[in-house]
Every structure is written in C-alpha cells, then in structure tokens.
User: Which sequence fits this backbone?
C-alpha cells in the first residue's frame, strides 16, 4: 500500500460567511503524482484535530503555503494590521505537530508558510515583511499596476531568483548542484533561525530559502519557495518531492 501523507488545511471563508478548510490542489497532486503517496487532508484546527491520533494514521506530513501569516506573538513580536491575515488555529496545530513529527522521525516537508512554521517551532523568529529589510528584493507574487495579482500563473510562479546551497549539504546532495533557481511568493521570511534550524540555502539578497532540522531522525526539510508548483516537471521541485516520497516509504516499512 502507498504511504499516507497528511496535508494541512487552512482556515477559509466561502462567500465571507461559511467556515471551511482549504488545501491547494497542486499540493495534493505533488504528493500523489511525484511522491507517489496518498494525500489526506486534515483540518488546521487543534480543537478538531488530535495530533496523536493523526500521527497514528499518516506516514508523514506536508505543511503547505497559505495566504495567512504566522501570528507574530509566536515569535515574540507584536501583531500589526498591515501583516494580516493570520490563522492562529493553524499556528497552534502546526507548531505542536512539527515537534511531534521530528521527535518520532515522521517525514515532514515544509513549504513557504510551512517552512516558516518549522523555524518558529524551534524557537526562531520571522520578519513580517522581508522586503522592508535594506538590500532585500520584493519576494511577493507579481501584481498588475492596479495592485491585483497577476492573472497568469506562469508569471506568478516563474523562477525569480537564485538560491545558493550549502556545499555537501542535504539539499546540494539531493539536487546534485549548489545553485538553483526558484519562484518567490512570500511576504514574511526567517529573521533569526531556530536553535535546531540549519540553513542550507540562501537567496541572492540574503533571504533564507532552504533549511533542515538538526539531528532529526527522519526527513525534516523546508523550503521558502512553492515546491508544489510544476513538481511533475520542474527538476528541483520534482527531486524534492521524490525524496520526500522515498523517505515516506522507508518510514512506512520501518513501522
């Protein structure tokens, strides 16, 4: 049987009225078609998702990107209306889930917000608007002159900058190179890395883009870019999801 991957949901309101949990389909397809696993959506809400019960069912976890930011109080900063929206229910669940996954050796892959959650879970901090730091580029998704998000997904998810990987590191070994190009669709980013967070990829402007958790007994990697995009064809993203899948199968066999 294929391994099962829990894919975290995000709080969403349909027509601004009906509460729902949302998962981007690209994430589900990357898990199913590239990692060769069964994606299982679960609610990013601690009051209805029991971490222990969830980890008994799944072989690994995918923490996806999301519109909402991690709440600043999670990394010792004050909230600001300009950095909304937030999803505090997902914060509570994801941070607890991360610690449990790493402790148990469950494979975990963090993407964009998930990458930021990995850092916060281990005591790191975020900058709520990375482009405000002198010398940094605007990492947010491309927009039209009127401020609307660009309607063409190939423009939104286009490769926008290089990332230099640590020579001999986990990412460099997996990808077989030390420089890659990636997309960029985020506002906040890592400011101070957490105690067990090892930086393995840095963008041209100094923004942290790839991390692993030190001494994790299982796969525990995070990327700031959206690795689920074109994971079936993009060589970098495909390799990462394939490696995630291999780790899932290895863990499943060891259970």
Assistant:
């Amino acid at each position: 049987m294929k391994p099962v991957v829990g894919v975290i949901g995000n709080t969403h309101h349909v027509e601004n009225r009906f509460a729902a949990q949302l998962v981007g389909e690209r994430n589900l397809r990357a898990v199913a078609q590239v990692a060769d696993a069964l994606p299982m959506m679960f609610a990013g809400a601690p009051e209805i998702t029991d971490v222990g019960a969830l980890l008994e069912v799944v072989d690994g976890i995918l923490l996806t990107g999301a519109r909402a930011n991690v709440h600043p109080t999670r990394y010792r900063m004050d909230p600001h209306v300009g950095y909304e929206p937030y999803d505090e229910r997902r914060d509570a669940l994801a941070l607890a889930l991360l610690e449990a996954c790493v402790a148990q050796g469950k494979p975990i892959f963090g993407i964009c917000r998930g990458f930021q959650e990995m850092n916060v879970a281990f005591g790191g901090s975020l900058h709520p608007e990375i482009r405000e730091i002198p010398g940094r580029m605007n990492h947010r998704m491309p927009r039209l002159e009127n401020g609307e998000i660009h309607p063409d997904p190939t423009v939104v998810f286009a490769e926008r900058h290089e990332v230099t990987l640590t020579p001999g590191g986990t990412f460099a070994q997996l990808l077989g190179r030390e420089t890659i190009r990636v997309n960029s669709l985020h506002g906040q980013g890592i400011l101070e890395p957490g105690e067990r967070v090892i930086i393995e990829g840095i963008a041209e402007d100094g923004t942290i883009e790839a991390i692993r958790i030190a001494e994790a007994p299982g796969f525990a990697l995070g990327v700031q870019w959206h690795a689920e995009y074109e994971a079936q064809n993009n060589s970098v993203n495909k390799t990462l999801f394939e490696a995630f899948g291999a780790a899932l199968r290895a863990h499943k066999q060891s259970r």
Remarks:
- The chain has a mean pLDDT of 91.
- Residues 235-254 form the longest helix (20 residues).
- Helices lie at 25-34, 51-57, 88-104, 113-121, 153-156, 170-175, 235-254.
